[in-house]
Design brief:
The chain has helices at residues 17-20, 25-37, 42-51, 55-70, 72-82, 90-104, 110-123, 130-141, 144-153, 159-168, 173-179, 197-206, 268-285, 315-325, 358-370, 375-380, 433-436, 439-456, 479-488, and strands at 187-190, 211-223, 229-241, 258-260, 304-309, 334-336, 342-344, 349-355, 385-391, 412-418, 460-470, 492-495, 505-506, 511-513, 524-531. The chain has 534 residues and is an alpha/beta fold. The strands form 3 sheets. Strands 5, 8, 9, 10, 11, 12, 13, 14 and 15 form a 9-stranded mixed β-sheet that branches. A hairpin with a 4-residue loop joins β13 and β14. It is globular and about 80 Å long.
């Protein structure tokens, strides 16, 4: 899921990575926070920060940075009540907020937090502010529990986002806004083509890594060959770790046995895979495909061609390929017909994945290589899977056609669209989002989503499925986007999720997971559409 870039908020703040790596631990954290306020993402500055530190300092620096980001807006409001006059210098404000976090959330000794933060103000070139920094921190240190309660009382979000969440999720608002300032648990997806969740859970126990098995049930109504709805359910199992753990401490992680992936994100591949299997079964039963072992993937239905759009970093693509490769009922290579007879067929399957940035394409390839799912690995398996990864803009890209072509043709049996979004559902993991996003970003992102949908939909075959996914919790990017799409596409049918789902909240179209759900997963939205014959 890519995150939209945001223009710098203050052109004067341009700390280079070299500058971040200099100075005390607190100074480096302050400079990292200044870089984020200047438009850089946490993911781009975190590793340079940690790599610049001694091992003994990394844990403190990580906690100081992440906690400051999670409490950023609440700290800013508290600071405004503590200062006699407005503090306009962003460097000074940032320094004081770093000091407040030490006193209120990290339980750093008063004298150390105050002294080191005052020294940090000097080191970044704001010695004139040391009296102010010292006075405010000493005031808070006299009664930290009082000021902690003030800080925790309300949300820690920009006002525009809090207002929008109040409009979208009034019943869940208080719990949701408090939940977004917490850390998120670490989840693992087990490679079902290698081992089972239960066996890997046992392996984790042997490695002294505590985890729980989380099982999510998805139910939805698919149209069968007679065009009547048939309810179907599927189970998705993952592992939730009691504590975040370095991946090198996980059994056989390097060999591709498991991947780090949020539990709610693990719903995507099983849902679109189940829908695709239903289409294939309908094709077989209706004899629309006379020879499923075809060699081409044209509109006659020979072979299967699927698309993962906006695929980076490749987690959902890898999951889909794992399901395809599994020797169980989730595999496309063993399709059960309506008469309960299983057809063991060698399906000619083409998989196309696109993303619009070369570095992100490299990330996809790296992840697939670790999981033994590269094109070379797939060719070695006893299944015919052709994988093609393309660097392309999903708003214009058309399979097999010139970018300037005015029309496109239906070639895909299923499309997984992990749509660009404001990523408000993953603020717990990426707290810089609450700083980088603006209200204008929501409108721009919604327009981008619409452009991608309008470009990809004509490339989906009749009877094919499109799964629309975001990691946003804003309705404009989710259910409202789908409602607008359905209004303008008469050949789009909404596949209803049933009450069998034990995740998310039912919407007019699709279901919305919030980061306060029982599974503790991130905020994700899912909508499944089927294309009808014109």
């Amino acid at each position: 899921m890519r995150q939209n870039s945001t223009a710098p908020r203050n052109n004067k703040l341009k700390p280079s990575s070299n500058l971040i790596m200099n100075g005390s631990v607190r100074v480096r954290v302050i400079r990292t926070l200044l870089a984020i306020q200047n438009g850089q993402s946490l993911s781009s500055v975190l590793d340079p920060l940690l790599n610049s530190l001694h091992d003994g300092d990394k844990g403190f620096a990580h906690a100081l940075l992440l906690t400051t980001l999670r409490q950023w807006h609440a700290l800013a409001r508290l600071l405004d009540t503590l200062a006699d006059n407005p503090i306009d210098e962003v460097e000074v404000r940032t320094t004081i907020q770093v000091g407040l976090v030490q006193l209120l959330y990290l339980e750093v000794a008063d004298h150390a937090a105050i002294h080191e933060t005052v020294e940090a103000a000097k080191e970044i070139g704001f010695a004139h502010s040391t009296g102010l920094v010292n006075a405010i921190l000493r005031k808070v240190a006299k009664n930290p529990s009082k000021f902690r309660k003030k800080c925790d009382k309300k949300h820690s979000l920009p006002n525009w986002l809090a207002y929008q969440l109040k409009q979208d999720w009034s019943e869940q608002y208080d719990e949701l806004t408090q939940g977004l300032r917490q850390s998120a648990p670490m989840f693992l997806r087990v490679n079902s083509s290698v081992t089972s969740v239960e066996d890997y859970h046992h392996a984790l126990y042997g490695a002294e890594v505590d985890a729980d098995i989380v099982e999510l049930t998805s139910g939805f109504k698919l149209l069968n060959a007679s065009e009547s709805a048939t309810a179907t359910t599927l189970s998705t199992k993952g592992l939730r770790l009691h504590q975040s753990t370095a991946v090198n401490a996980l059994p056989e992680f390097a060999q591709g046995t498991a991947s780090v992936q949020d539990m709610h994100a693990q719903l995507a591949a099983p849902i679109i895979n189940k829908a695709l299997m239903a289409k294939l079964r309908a094709d077989i039963n209706s004899s629309e495909v006379a020879d499923i072992d075809g060699t081409d993937s044209d509109s006659t239905g020979k072979g299967i061609h699927i698309l993962d759009a906006c695929a980076a970093p490749g987690g959902k693509l890898a999951h889909w390929l794992e399901l395809i490769s599994a020797n169980d009922q989730s595999s496309l290579f063993h399709v059960k017909q309506d008469n309960a007879k299983t057809s063991s067929v060698t399906t000619n399957l083409k998989v196309t994945a696109i993303d619009n940035e070369a570095p992100r394409i490299e990330r996809i390839c790296e992840n697939l290589q670790r999981l033994n799912l590269s094109q070379h690995d797939l060719q070695q398996a006893e299944k015919s899977v052709a994988l093609n990864i393309v660097c392309a803009d999903a708003t214009r890209w058309q399979h097999g056609k010139n970018k300037k072509a005015a029309t496109n043709e239906p070639v895909f049996d299923a499309i997984l669209l992990d749509s660009p979004c404001t990523a408000t559902g993953v603020i717990r993991r990426h707290p810089d989002i609450s700083i980088l996003r603006t209200e204008e970003d929501v409108e721009q992102t919604a327009l981008l989503q619409a452009d991608i949908l309008h470009n990809l939909w004509p490339q989906l075959k009749a009877g094919g499925y499109l799964l629309y996914v975001t990691c946003s919790i804003l309705k404009q990017e989710n259910v409202e986007q789908m409602q607008d799409f359905i209004t303008h596409h008469n050949d789009a049918v909404v596949i209803e999720f049933t009450e069998d789902c034990n995740w998310g909240i039912g919407q007019a179209i699709g279901r919305q997971c919030l980061p306060i759900d029982s599974a503790s997963g991130d905020g994700f939205y899912y909508a499944l559409l089927q294309k009808t014959a014109e």
